[in-house]
Design goal:
Largest sheet: 8 strands, antiparallel
Shape: globular
Amino acid sequence: MKKILLYCVNLAAFITLMGCDNHNQSPRDAALVLEGRTMGTFWRVSLAGVAPERKESLQNAIQTQLDADDKELSTWKSDSVLSRFNQYQGTEPQPISDNMADIVTLSLRIARKTDGAMDITVGPLVNLWGFGPNRQPVKTPTQGEIDAAKALTGYRHLWVTERGERAWMQKDLPSLYVDLSTMGEGFATDHLARLMEKEGIKSYLVSVGGAVLTRGQNASGQPWKVAIQKPTDKENAVQAVVDLQGHGISTSGSYRNYYELDGKRISHVIDPATGRPIQHRLVSATVIATTALEADGWDTGLMVLGEEKAKALALREKLAVYLIMKENDGFTSWMSPQFKAFIQQQ
């Protein structure tokens, strides 16, 4: 069995890139690696068979593309397209780009499939608990504050329509606040893949935050591999290794992004139904799908649902899903039949 060499960086603390080691290769034959920051996280692109001389131009093209995506989707920037929609306190249809229409349409479809567990209008609750642009609360929000924030949410208050050649987004609750952060990393990852294809590059691994997509083979002529990390604070603690086979992957987890408040651990994953951070024992949900965007949408909904409902949904929708649950002093895992086709022996 060949030894798998870990990549030197992990993404969003949940996924580690593997199988693209550059040791014993000449500079021209080694993978070309580019990286930077976007959307409050890191992006990384690994390319096989691409001349080092293209590094600067590709770096600039990638950053320009991601900056444009951020300007469209950010809730942190008041002048973004999405922020302007959120600032609009009316119910008339507002023009949006095709990109945003695609994201919102898919988000609403997944919202219906998860019975609202994945809800892109949950922003007021995310902000209330201190995981959005608002500061972390100094005390646990009261039930009254939670109820007031919940009254401002609900994916059924939002829809996308087409008029002529334009896409439009409309809300029947004027104060509705749309937050696409749960989908932004997957969307940006897919966008980078399209950029690589446009640049004539056929073998690449692109990632933004915890979303990854691959095509072709790495610089060693082997499949690109991705490791799902164990839910611990130890780097490179591998739970499972997958060969994406040209698919996208995304992981949502509750064990890294949290804070302590009033003696309790507060997770960034908010349940739209209760208005509170999740409390169940599911700590990580990984999804492999045709696109990184779709994987990014499903993993959040599964995390909110918890172990049993997530399993039932994965089986019903035939999703490639890998779940990790807290079990006493350790962890247990479960994978759907569709996920098994991607597992690699370590």
